[in-house]
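Form P-L/3: holo structure prediction, ligand coenzyme A.
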Amino acid sequence: MKRIAILGTGSFAPEKILTNADLEKMVDTTDEWITQRTGIKERHISDKDTPTSVLAVKAAERALAAATVNAGDLDFIICGTVTPDMIFPSMACLVQAKLGATKAVAFDIAAGCTGFIYGMELARSLITADPSRKVLLIGAEELTKITDWTDRSSCVLFGDGAGAVVLAQVDEDRGILSTFLGADGNLGDLIYQPGGGSLHPASHETVDGKMHVIKMAGNRVFPHAVRKMGEAATRALEAAGVPQDQLDLLIPHQANFRIIDAIGRQLNLPMEKVYVNIDRYGNTSSASIPIALDEAVRNGRITPGKHVMLVAFGAGLTWGAVLMRW
Ligand code: COA
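OUTPUT (holo model):
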């Protein structure tokens, strides 16, 4: 049996931590409100001189070491990110140079918090087309660099970090069993960053008008997130013919504990089968799933033979799920 599988995982988060108590001094909020409404206690935040590619490279080096693959043997580097170092060149090209992965084709995917899941399907397709290929997939973000620190409804949510995996074909019955992706561009204005693109190029007006920060209608996003992640996970289980009760671990995008809890209940999963680390990271967008996956592999929550589901939702709107046998 040949399948496309993850050979190794890695992650990295900046050392500096911003707690809810710190946020109480910045905006009109409380630790109690943030904890009860989101499940977040603290998040890692990058300093101003450290761009996202630095986090991406650290996570990638750990994934390559775990996979025992040399950077020079990579065929593709794909970065899921909406906070690249600059608009162009792509962050994947910056990572390629820093890793010395001279053979690799490199590009970014902008699918918001679903970037890593979209990347998994892309990696699967690329390896299906040529089974000799090795793909490095990274989710890396510094959302705190585009956060509106005066907007209490969004600034309490976000954190920085990176996670990475190396994928290749294996001659074993483990790896990706099914995927499901979706998008609805009609809901693009629920989470977006209006300034800096060709519609509103950077100018004094866009800066004064706070157009370079995240705009989000959080309470409108919430029900879509629950419905679409639940649907994506169900469709991926159906496509693989794996019954719900054989799912061993759900790793959902860490956006809000109440969203995570609702998806767990929708899939009839007890909470011990749902991975949660939002209390320590906040929402790290496309990095959230590969960070959680790396933690779960390293702390023994994932062991060979387990059915693991990754499911995400994000700006676009986009959503998707990947079911794997580890
Ligand atoms: N501290 C204290 N009060 C706050 C607050 C904060 N940080 N942020 C908002 N509030 C207040 C609001 O002003 C509002 O007050 P009002 O009732 O007097 O008007 C009240 O809390 C309820 O606001 P609401 O927006 O309805 O809260 P909520 O329960 O929906 O929680 C989010 C807000 C943003 C935490 C929640 O909607 C959410 O997580 N949504 C999903 C966002 C998301 O996941 N985005 C990324 C997708 S990848």
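COMMENT: The first strand starts at residue 3 and ends at 12.
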